[in-house]
Amino acid sequence: MNILSYGLLALVSRKEASGYDLMLKIQPFWQAKHSQIYPLLGSMEEKGLLSAIWIQQADKPDKKLYSITPEGTLKLHEWLLEETAAPVMRDEFNLKCFCIHLAEPSEVRRMFADRRAYHVDRIKYYKDIQDNIPKEHRNPGHIGFEDYILLQKAVLRTKASVDWIDWVEQEYGQWTVEA
């Protein structure tokens, strides 16, 4: 079992889903492609962690709906209690920041302005979703509480990125003159 397997189990523990639905739902947490997801679903089904039924559709291809089994729930619970690995961060923007000394000041300012605009849009996106979470889902113990707290983490992380960009722009401005 890898982390993606546990992520798929977690999603299916909340609601049965097709492989395609799972691919869409896992994206905010973990970047994965069809070629990774479908073999894992098949393997977990073979191991008895998931069960599946075929749903016939009149105007679309038939789809397979996965649901978690008691064995899958146990496996997911065991993983939940394991020590969590340190976070991994892969961000192309950070690598580009490492070489801004090669760019003209106007290019650097544009790069940071573009990234700031991206983060401001993401904050609005997260807040819009968060605002639509019903009040009762905001209580610990409710299955929707996880959505609420993870959205708050996304909002705070993204605001921190905006604050950092503002700080960099101030520092950078002290040392450069508009070209």
Automatic annotation (TrEMBL):
Transmembrane segments: none
Domain of life: Bacteria
InterPro entries, alphabetized: Tscrpt_reg_PadR_C, Tscrpt_reg_PadR_N, WH-like_DNA-bd_sf, WH_DNA-bd_sf
Record domain Transcription regulator PadR N-terminal: where: 8-77
Location of the Transcription regulator PadR C-terminal domain: 89-171
PANTHER family cross-referenced by the UniProt entry: TRANSCRIPTIONAL REGULATOR YQJI, TRANSCRIPTIONAL REGULATORY PROTEIN
Protein's recorded name: Transcriptional regulator
Protein's organism: Saccharibacillus endophyticus
